[in-house]
Every structure is written in C-alpha cells, then in structure tokens.
Amino acid sequence: MEEDCNRSNAAMCFNKDTKKATVQRNGTRKKRHGSEIRVPVGGWVTMETRTVTQREQESSSSRASHSMELSSQTKKRTFTSSDEEVPYSDFCPNIPADVIKEILNMENIPRHRTWEILRETLAGDEDYHRDEWTMFGNEAEKLEKGVIRHQRLLRTRVDKLALRKEAQKKASEHLRYLERLSQKVPDFAVPLRAHTVWEGMTVQLSCIVQGCPTPEITWYKDGKPLRRSEKPWNYGLQQAFGLNSLEIRRCSPVDGGVYKVVAKSPLGEAMTFATLVVNSYRGATAGCEDSTTRASQEAVFASAFPPTWVKECDSLTLSCSFTSPLLPFQQDITWFRDGIQLLQSCTVDIKTTNNTASITLSAVYKEHEGVYTVRLKTWDGILESSAYVYVEDASAAVVGGPGSPLLVQVTDVNKDYVFLTWQPPSADGVSPVEGYFIERCDLSQGQWVRCNMHLQKLCHYPVFGLKEGAKYQFRVRAVNQAGVGRPSKATEPVVTEDPLEHTRTMVVKVHRGRTIAITKDELEGQVRTPFPPTNVHACEVSDIYVVLSWTEPEPRGKEPLTFYVERSQEGKNTWELASLDVVVNSPRFPVFDLVKGTQYRFRVRAINKYGVSDPSEPSGLISLGKPERVPSPPSSLMVFRDTDTSVLLEWQEPKDKEGILGYYLYYSETGQGDWKIVNNKPVTDTRFTVHGLQTRKEYVLRVKSVSRAGNSDYSEESLPIVVKAAICVPSAPSAIALLLCTGSEMVLGWRRPRQDGGAPVRGYYLDQKEAGAETWREVNVKAVKERRATVSKLTSGLWYQFRVFATNMVGVGKPSDASEAFLCEKWTMAEPGCPFDLAVREVRNNSLVLLWAAPLYAGKDPVTGYFLEISQGGPDSDNWTALNEKPVTDTYYKVSGLQAGETYRLRVSAVNEAGTGRASLPSEAVMAQTPPDTKNIEVGVDDEGFIYLGYECDEFDESKCLWSKNYTEPIDDARAQAESKNGRSVLTFSDASAEDLGLYTMEMSDDPSQSSSYVLTAEDLERLKELSHQVRNPLIALKSGWHVEVSEKGEVRLWLQTESLSESAELRLIFNDKEISSTPHRKINFDKAEGLVEVLIDRLGREDEGSYTAQLRDGRARNQFTLVLVDQQFRELLALANGKRRDHERKSGPYFQEYLSWSVNKDCEVIIKCKVTNTTDDTTLRWFKDGTKVTQAVYDIPSGVSTLTIPQIGKKEAGSYKVVVSDPRGEDVSTLALLDEEFNKLLQQLSKQCAMSAGPLRVQSTAEGFRLYCSLKYYISYLKTIWSFKEKRMEPQARTRMGSNAHTVWMDIFNPTENDKGKYSLEMFDGQETHTRHLDLSGQAFVDALLEHQRLKQEAVTEKNRAKVTKGLPDVVAIMEGKSLCLTCFIEGDPDPDVFWLRNDRELPSEGQFFITKEPRCSTITINDVHTDNSGKYSVVVRNRCGSETVDVTVSVYKHGELPPANAVEMGL
User: Fold this and answer.
1) Which 8-state DSSP code applies to residue 1211?
2) Over the stretch 870-894, which tens digit does the pLDDT of each residue have?
3) Is the dihedral of CA 822, 827, 831, 832 positive or negative?
C-alpha cells in the first residue's frame, strides 16, 4: 500500500526553464534520475530523458518537519475516485510514472535506444522511493498511515458507488445499442400468394413480416381497409410471431379482388399484394377485372436511354421512364459506369421522380465514356438498362491537331516529386502524334506551367522540383506536325507531402481509454549528423530517364533532411554529383542525362543543418532501358450483324500483348476512305458493338492497339458488312379470334407478329387447353401457312383457350397471350360472324387504309357490307365512333380526316339481311404520322415504251415487294410482271389497256408498314400511251432551231443543233426539193457528237434564195427541220451581208468604232465623243465645226477615244461637227449635226440634268426681306421656272422680284409680313418633265427668318450710320527727312464722329511738331520737319454711338541719298 501511495504521488512535470524532472516528497525537492511526458497543444506527446547525477542527503529533522507538514489535502488530491476527472494542465498534463512503465513494458512498441535509457531511469527512481520510505520511523509515520487508511476506506466507498453507476449506465447503453442493432425496416419474408378458388370454399391468405420494432399490420381489399367487424362470421385475422393470416370462409364472388397487406413502423413501410379469384359454377369469375398481381403493381422500365454521343466538355443527361410510379422499395435508383456506381456530387446530378429517373454530368470527358447502367429493384430481383455513351473529341486547338490524351493519373506522390501516366488519344490529326507536353498548375497561383521542354514520347513522365505542401493539378497535351492539341482532363488535386509521415506517429492506448500520440521526430531529437540512406535502386526505368529511389536513414532525426545524389560510371572510382544545382527533398530523383549503353552506380547522402551523412551503399548497375516498342495491331477481324444501326466487331489480340491497355476502333463506308473514330476510351475486351451506323449502308472497320508507347498501326480492314438487324425468331402473334364453331371444331384466326425477325414467317403452331387447366396441348405438329386454323376433336359445351407461335428459319418464337375462353357450341345465329385479320396500311398524318378478311360464318344470309368504327386515345379508350353510314362492300377502307400525332384503333362489323354481326377484335393502336423517308409509287414509261409502276427502296435483301390490285387481288402475270433489283421494284404492264385500270398496292414482306398505293385512271393511261408511242417512235430532240448569222466579212452561216447523235447518224440536206452537198461556194458541216448542222455561204447571192431542209436519222429516231429564206427576209439578209462586207473593207484602215455622239454629265457639261480603232503612229484625227478646225478636243491615243467638252452651251455652240481619222491606209469620217431638233434635244437633256442637280428650296434673310433660292450646278434659260405661293402662281410685283444667275434661281420678298407665311414652290420645266422643289415658310421657320431679317435690317442701319474712314490714307508712306508730312482722311457717320490720332497706339496732341485739324467730314495731321524718330505706326480712330473704326498707316522716314521702300507711297512737301 505504501509503495502504491508513493507511486501515486510521484508525478513528473516538464519544467520549461530548467528542463529538469523534479519530485516533491516530505517537503524536500530531490534531484533524481527520472522521466517526464509532455502533451503540447496539438495532441503531441514529447518524452524527454535526462540523468540526475547527484542526490542530496536529507537530514532526519527535515524529514520529521516534512512529516508534520503533510496534510490530508495532499493525500485527497492523490486518492481521487474513479468518477472524478483527473486534473490536467492546459499545456502540460502530469502523467503518472506507472503509466510510463506500462507503456515501456508493451511488446508492440518499436524499440529505440531512447526507450532503454528511459527504462533505466524509472528503475533507479523506483529503488530510490523504496529506500526513502523505510526511513520513516517516528510517530508522524503512524499518523500518516492512519490518515491514509481512512482515505482508502472513503475512496473504496466512493468507487463502489461510481462503479455501480457506471455499470448501470453501460448496461442501459448496451441495451440501447442492441436495440438499435436489431432495428430493421419492415419487409415481407414470405409475401402473399394469389389464389383461385371455387365459390363456397375456404381460403387462407398468409404472409410473414419481419422488422424491428414490430411493424403495425393493416389489411386492405381493393384499396379499402378490411374491417373484421363488417363480416365477423366470414373473416378471421390471426397474427403470431410475424405470421399474419386472413381466413375467408365460404367464399362468394364478392370476396374476389386484390388483397393488400401494409406493414408500417417508424423506419418505413412495406406492402404485398395478392389476387383472389372466385370461380362461380355458373361461369362467372370474380376478381378478374381487378386481378392485378404484385408484379403488375410494381414499376418496370417503360423506356430507356439509347446509345448516346456527346462532345467533350459538354453536359450529358441520360433518362429513363417507368411504367408506373415507383413503389417505396424501388425509390433507390442506382446508376453505374462500367460497373462502378456513380454517386451524387458537384459534377453528377441524380434525380428520381415517380415515373422517371435521370443522371446529368455537368462536363463530360473521355474518361467518362463507357457503358452506363441504371438499376431498378423489383420483387423478383433487379432490372437493368444499359447503353454505351460515346464521348467525341471537341474542336481541335489547331487545324489538323491531335485529340486530347486521357486517364492522366498521379502516382508515387512525394514532397517534390510525382509520377504521371496517361493514355494516348485515338485521333492523331493530320499526322501521327510525335510526343506530349506535360503541364502543372499550382492551385494557389492558378496558372498552368509546362513541365518538360522537350517532347515526351512515352505516356509516362516523372515530374520533379515541386513545392512541398502545395496542391497541384496536372494535364497533358499531344503534339503532331500541325501543332499542340487540346489538353486532357486535369487530374484531381494532389498535395505534395511525405507519404511515410503517418508511420512516424504512433498512438498508444493506455488505461481508462486514454491515448498518447508519440512522434519519432521528438524521440530522435538527440540525432545530429544524419545517418546515410539505404536501399538505393531504380524504381522507374525508360529509354530516356531513370528514377532513383532510396530509404531515408533510421533514425532520421528531428531536423528536415535533403539529399545529394552521386553517380559513377562502371569501372571508375570517381564520383560526381548527379543532383547539381538541384535540391532533393524526397527519396525520389529522376536522372535524364545518362548515356545510352553506359552503366552507372548511384549513392545518396543525407543532409540536415548539422552536416552531411556518409554516402549510402552504392546501388547495383543501372542503365537506361530499351526503347518501348509500339504494340502490334490486332488481327482476324470479324464483324457480325447486330441491329439496324450497329454491328458487332470481334478481333484477335496480338501475340505479344504485354503493355496493351486496350483498343481503338475506326469505321468507314466501303470505298470512301473517310475513317471515323468509334471510341475515344480504349476498350479492354476483344469484342465491341459499334453503334451509330446508317441502316443498309456498307462499312469496313479496323482496330488499333493502345499502350504507353503509343498506338499501333491500323489492323487490316474487316470484310465489308451491310448494316441491318440480325435475324431472330418472330415476335408473338396476337388478337386470337373465334371465326367459326361447328360444335366439334373451331376455326381460329389471329394477327401476324409485329416483327418477323428479319426472315419471312414460315408458319404457325397452336396450343390449346381447357379453361382453368394448367397444361397446354399441341394442336398441330406441322406449321400452318395461313393466319387461321381449324381445331378439331373438341367437346361441345366446354370452354377452351388457345395460344399461337410463329416460326421462321431461325426457330419458333414466343407464344401469344392466351386467348379468352371460347365456348365450343355450334353457331346458329342469323347474323354474320366477325371479320378478322385486321391490318393497317399506308399510315399518313391524316389518313390510313384498313384491310380485313371477310367473316367465315356468313349467318343466315350472305354478307352485304361492313360497318367501321374508330376509337381515339390508345388501348385504354373504349369510345367507338362510326366511320360510315352506309355499309362498304370492299374489304378495305381509306380512313381520312385523322389528326396528326393522335393514336387510333379500328374495328369492323359485317352486315347481312338479318342485321349486324359481332364486331371484330380491335386493330393494333396506330399513330397517325407519316413515317420518315416515306416513298410513293410512281408511274412512267421505260426505255422500251412499256408502262410501269415503280417503288424506290433502299435495299431488299430477304424482303420482297408484294404487288396486288385492290389490296387483295393478285397480279395477273399475263398482264403485268413485277421485278425488284437495285433498290427498286417495278410492275411492268405487257400491253396496258382499260382492263388494267384500278387501285394498285405495294408492301414490303417483312415490314408491311412500308406500303403505298396508286390509282391508275383513264387519263393516266391515255397520257402514258402517248408517251409510250413517243418512246417507241422517238424523235431526235431539237436543242436549237435554224439560225441565220452574218459574219463581219459578210459571210452567211445557217445552223441548227440537236441532241447528241451516235456515229451512225445520217444527214440529208434538201435545197428547193433537191439534195445538195458541199461546194466551194456552199460548205456543209455535220458534227454528230454535238448534233450540229451548219451551212456556210461565202458570198450570198440571188441563187441562194429558197428553202433549206435538214433530214436527220439516228437508229429508230428521226426528224427534219426546214428554213425558208425568200422575199423580204432574204432581201434583208442580202442587204445585211453586203453592208458588212463593205464595212469590213472600210475597216482595212483606221475607222470609227464609235461614231460621234453627245451626252450630258452630272456637272451639266456637254460631251461630244467618238472612238477610233485600227490606228498606227501615222494616224491623225482632226475636229471641225461648220468647216472650221476645232483645237479644244482631246484625243487619247491608247484608248482611241476623242472628246470635246463644252462647259456652257449657247446658240453659238449649235452647228455641224465632223471628225476625220486618216493615215496612208485610208480615211474614215464621222459627223454630228447639232441643229434644229437635235440641238433642242440637247438643250432639253441639259435642262433636265440641271433641274436634277437642283438642291432643296431654302430661305435666306436679308436687310431688305427674304430671298428664296434654289442652287443648281448650271442654269440655262431653256429651263423654264415658275414660282408658286400657296399653290398659286406668283408674278413679279412691287414686293417680289424673281431672278437667276449661272448657279441659282431666286425670288426676293421685300418687307415681309405675316401674309407672306405659307408654302412656296419652284417648278422647273425642262421641256418634257417638271421638277418641283418646296419650302414651307410658316411656323417657327417664318419666325426665325423674320427675326433674322429684322436683325440684319438693324445692322444695315447701324452700319450706315457707323463712324468710318472712307478714304485718304495709304497703308505705307515714305518721306525724306526734313520735309513736312500731311495725312488727310475723309470721315462719315451720323452723328458726326469724334476723331483721334495715335502714334504707336498713343494719342497725339496737336502741338509742337504735330498739327491736327478736325472737320465734320475730314481730318488732317501735319508733321513738320520730319526726322527718323517720327517713323512708326500712325492711326486715326473715328467713333460715334453707332460704332468706331481705326485705320493704320505706316510712316517710313528715310535720309537723303537713300531710296524709299518699294511698297510705300512717297509724300512730302
């Protein structure tokens, strides 16, 4: 007990100042060999060890004193109860030494030399305690023991209470934990099961429910709660141990229906369904109408997402819909990509509603390509819907650039080093990928920086020189000859840190659930100079770099480490620094500058602030690796049909498949060479379904292998394949109907399968069973060809059900749904049976055609017609509307007036004399919508003259075009033959006549929805027969009839052109009923390829007058064409030919290409122009007017154009103009008479141009009044002007004056008043047209003009009365020295102005040398005896109340013998 007490009191605490371990005992502080543990504020525990070399000896008196001072307070603090909290310091908690001993005795703690020192220290401390305790022998010791004994008893009582409370608390917590652990959502281990019973029987519906807490059970029937109190004698409910039962005694038809059990608890709810069918002996079935099973209640996929293509960086949304709202247990819809579940995140948005589920990716990259799957829970398991999502390359960064790499991954993260890997792109661009650039982004800076200066050819790269503790992202760009491509998707952010940092921290659990964290950094604080690293080796080797790796020294020490890397070539003893100028912070270092073929050894030194370690042991021999080889391409490509838009491609992987990451696929239409990329993410399997192909197009495919070394060459192309669905078994028939019953036989009919599986249906098999039986029995062993069959050996009075199988060359398809129960009873009713085999053809936006077969049972009387009914709204609608008021006799009917996009069903009833029979089963629901690429039957005549009906189709393959007349009648082979080839089916008539008129139909055998019809009418037949006659008796088509041309030399050419003729074509030319041939005077040419016939006559004469007929024949085709050249037509042609001949002779020398003509330009100038050609250097051109030579003309020799410009024209410009061009070769003359009418025409055109140049009518205010004016470029008197005011013509008056000048037409209005307000017009008549300009002088315009007039008028008065110098003073005056100068000026002004004389801007007084006189109209200054000082500027200033004026004169005085200034007026007396 004493030792425990001492151990409890021996608490160690770290002293920050002295860093010594102290123990307080008996009032004396003792130094000893001890240990302490410090837990700083971050959760770290620091253990520091030191040795105390001396212990002080204490005297007995000191020990006695200490014993007396020992207080119970100290002991109380030592003996704390278990429910009290142990006191902890905020910064340095005290940890008992026995805890440290417990830690040191643990086996799982790594051994270190520090631990041994600490163990020795604690052992010595324990001996010291034991020795000190035995020294107590006084009375105080006895007292102390008593106190301790009482405290221990008190502590025991307190601990018992605390332990009891703790035990109760833990027990309650354990119970709550077990309760939570056992909680379970309600679930039905055994669900309800459907039952079918006879009326009067007892049935028990049972289910087993599980859940914790126990769920509450509620029963429902047909959606309403089931209460036992309603029928206590009939219902019995039991519940025990999770088994819930409902017993229904003496079942009646009203008990039939859907029973549901709902289990609810706070954790959720679950439900189960079952249908109870109660059969009555009278044939009625209860519960059938609502017999929806549990499976029908649950939701399944209604539609799913197809294969999808999305561009890189775009968003992607995939969605699917369900047949009904999701049940509670189905709400958890899960999405997967390549088998990996996708979860909600910032980039993935998953939504689920009652009927739909969707997933949206905000930005899609190549890494996101793959198979996407959505999973739905059902009662029976899990349903899945999958489709492939293709991610296409985004637009290239440069034209022809490569695609972006993908799957960039970061591995081996260290303090300053990471290792990157990626996969090459599928798109090389215009040239193969030459290498890659790696980029990094420090997220604290947000800027992308290139890591490598030289291209990295392989798809891996070590990135070195990173900052420790920084967060980075990386991406890669591919490079080819066109440039740098788009970047890859950036990696997830990574933090550069020591990957082994967590191994340097250990958390130790101690008593009472406490933990202590211990770090090696503090334990190794005594380490100074580091130890050398170990295990130097190469972790990554390529043909261009080697990445070295080593293990840090152990112990490493507290101080941070860096490393030196040294290397030495094989066979040498010298070492050189490989990490020169590079700080290596982590045990990874890439070396790029190694020489190929040379082997090296490496060693590493560790460095901290205390020094450099010894070198590590040298590594083994290391050298650059061999270049990685590009893999071989795959082989043995095999392609198979899959669907209408996809094919399945399989291939054999290369023999050497090491390093292959996957495969890229490519496809192209056969023969085009335009290869497109299939996948942008390598597929790892050796088979792949290629989607997105065009139906019935032929394709070839090829594959590349993908590795880190790059992509392989292309494989050999696959065999061509036409894209179409692979054949399979047909779908199930439907709509089984009873057509006839004889009492022992039944005749059944049914609807053909929706899909024949790509191969024609060869027949049908039937099964039968009695209603209520479980086993089906075969009806026929041999397939029936038609869609009806007779079932024999039936028992009259029994009910039978049937099902039908369809078969083709692949096999037998799935069975149809079981028919309704048919009673085997002989039909004797008078009305006819139901029509059958309803089929819909030629579906369009607003019409369709319904076909049916006549009923097999006609009733008492023959069938006379049919009534049709239609229902809009799909299978659930039961509202039927009659289509025809009177019965139709045909077994087809065209339904019109439909609404596009709406869904319809139809049914038919037969009619006889007895009445209307039972309606047929409804047709399949069909939407009124024209199918895409719908083709129609066309009618025409072929090259042989036969009339045909044709239908275009892509390809036929196994399908056949089935032609019929009136939908049912087969085509008579004697009258028409059908042939299908090259995507076209043709029905050709042997000899079309009236017997062939009618309705013709065509449908595809494997897809009856591809159907069309054509009505051949009598009008069509007549038109086609005429066309047939033309084909059988063809005419040579004429492109251009006879033409007559005359050449510049006067030669005549007669020609015509037909369509191109063969080499066997013949020509006969008839002239005046006689066949002619070529002669020197008349040449005949016949170009058969161009169909050109021409006759060339060099000199036309009277003997050439008459008719010309060209008779052509080319095989069966022939034609003739006639030209008549007689009378006036011939005379005109003869005159034209002779004139051109003479003109040609004239043009042997210089001549006028354009004769003299005049024109008026926009500047209203008259231009007379001519143009000559065929000139030489000796050619001269002269102008004359009325025989007088004109020299103002301009002649441009290069262009041959000569012009004479008349700026302003008058009567003197009228006359006869002539131009003569001549040289030694000849002369030509051109004349122009500008006289009389021609001159008037010129004036009229000039007037028109002048009027068109007129600007708007404006107003100008003057001192006298208003001036209205219009500006023109040029005005002539021939242009008549009329002024109007308020639409009334104005004449000159006292207040108005009209006038004009060369550029203006104006009218003055003197002293304007308010009466002059209004609209003014100026009409200019050029002899043919009137040009009008308007001005609205009213309102503000009039006010402004009037104010301006008044202002100007006032200024005019003021200017008139203003003081001014009128004359008298020159600008510069020169006078000889010694003379007198007299300057006189004349003055005006009212009132008389004041006069001042200034010299150099200073007023001159009239005194001394200066004498000034001032008169009312004159002022004089006289300067006597002038000298040079009198030179300067003299000014006279006149001023009155109306204004002032200053006139300056410069006086220059010169001496005797000098000359006066040249520009001065010499004066002097």
Assistant:
1) G
2) 998 877 778 899 999 899 999 999 9
3) positive
